[in-house]
Amino acid sequence: MGDSSDFERFYSDLKETEKRDSVLTSKQQIDRLLRPGSTYLNLNPFEVLQIDPDTDVEAAKKKYKKLSLLIHPDKNTDDRERAERAFDVVKKAIKMIEDPDELAKCRETYTEARARLAIIMSEKRRKQKKNGQGDKIPEDEPAAYNKALWVVVTKVFADREKKRKMLEDRANEEKRRVAEEMLAAAEKRKREEEFAKNYEESRDERRGTWRQFMAKKAKKECEGKSLKGTAFKPPKIKLETSGK
């Protein structure tokens, strides 16, 4: 069984699923878009709009219009909060499909998923043959294959989103580090400028203080010299006379 025929069966089954889902009510569509695990499931715009990866943009827009009218918050006033969340999911999906680069990445995700599944199936087949169980595996059946492919596709989308967030977090951390360094440098310059300004403004005061200090010093030295130039006069000694 080649990859091409496998994927064709996947598309056929997906179209049958679309026919069944087309009769879902507004509430059921909102439930589908907000079901457990939707954080990762809704990364796949084709899954959100219930179209196959090869659907052209115009057909995708028609499906978007039909689905958005069904879940629009104004038509689900009794469940507006959930309807708004579901509506945002659908809007994000069509924006991805309308962006050529994003659309190409999404289609590449399916290519990668098919390649991963082929490796998984090959390894599973090899182990079965080794154990004498033949080379037929459950994924040879269309339903099992489609389920397995859906699981792998979802995982690849999740892996890519995790990688995107990791790179985004790393870039944000680098921006934060650079911003902190720039702020620290700016604060340092500000302190240096304030110091220089205060130093300049206090120059006259420092000069005046220095002059006063030198004047006092000179006065003391002068007074010291005056004391040295004065002759020392010893006290007169009065001789005592005896009464003899």
Automatic annotation (TrEMBL):
InterPro entries: DnaJ_domain, DNAJC8, J_dom_sf
GO cellular component: nucleus
Stored PROSITE patterns: DNAJ_2
One Pfam family, short name: DnaJ
Cross-referenced Gene3D superfamilies: DnaJ domain
SUPFAM superfamilies xref list: Chaperone J-domain (SSF46565)
Occurrences of domain J (ranges): 44-114
Start and end residues of each stretch annotated as Disordered: 190-244
Biased composition (Basic and acidic residues): 190-208
Descriptive protein name: DnaJ domain-containing protein
Source organism per UniProt: Wuchereria bancrofti
